Amino acid sequence: MTPSPFLLDRIMAVMEAAFDPAYGEAWNRRQVADALSMPSTHALVVDGDGELLPEDLASPRAPAGFLLSRHVLDEEELLLIAVMPSCRDRGIGTILINRLFEAARARGISRIYLEMRRGNPALHLYRKLGFEPIGERPNYYRMANGERIDAITFGRSI
Ligand SMILES: CC(C)(COP(=O)(O)OP(=O)(O)OC[C@H]1O[C@@H](n2cnc3c(N)ncnc32)[C@H](O)[C@@H]1OP(=O)(O)O)[C@@H](O)C(=O)NCCC(=O)NCCS
Description:
Largest sheet: 6 strands, mixed
Helix content: 25-40%
Structural class: alpha+beta
Radius of gyration: 15 Å
Mean pLDDT: 96
CATH topology: Aminopeptidase
Bound molecules: coenzyme A
CATH superfamily: Gcn5-related N-acetyltransferase (GNAT)
Number of helices: 4
């Protein structure tokens, strides 16, 4: 199913503001639309109070953060999480991940995975929310300048 343009606009507004281009982690609109056209991929978008924004309706409330995830059987992967720089350190990332736990449980998911580049400060958020490191892929990511960075995989039962 084609994702709503309202949903894509909100995700891309946060995406374009949140990611440091040096790491090449941001997705473009086409990548987000393709991912969300699959029924196994899910999006959560919240405003500055952590309230969910409707997927297919206009809203005067501006998006502050989003989270994308994909499930396979009873496991779900957190694909991307981002919060507007002006809205950080107010608990919105925490709210997004807690909302993921809630939505994933409702889908019958028992375990969540994610992968991050070594050195990403998001580590603090993941550890605080109970994710444990379970593996490493040396030199997995390539930065815009060609440098390689390890990927670290985390998991948590829910
Ligand atoms: C990672 C990110 C989503 C966190 O969002 P946030 O709304 O600021 O997170 P929270 O306010 O819920 O923070 C939760 C905890 O993590 C800590 N934390 C979050 N980002 C941090 C950072 N960059 N450096 C150090 N600590 C950080 C907070 O201080 C807080 O700790 P505390 O509760 O002990 O005070 C946000 O920094 C971001 O969008 N980063 C850029 C995109 C990115 O790298 N995403 C992850 C890879 S996909």
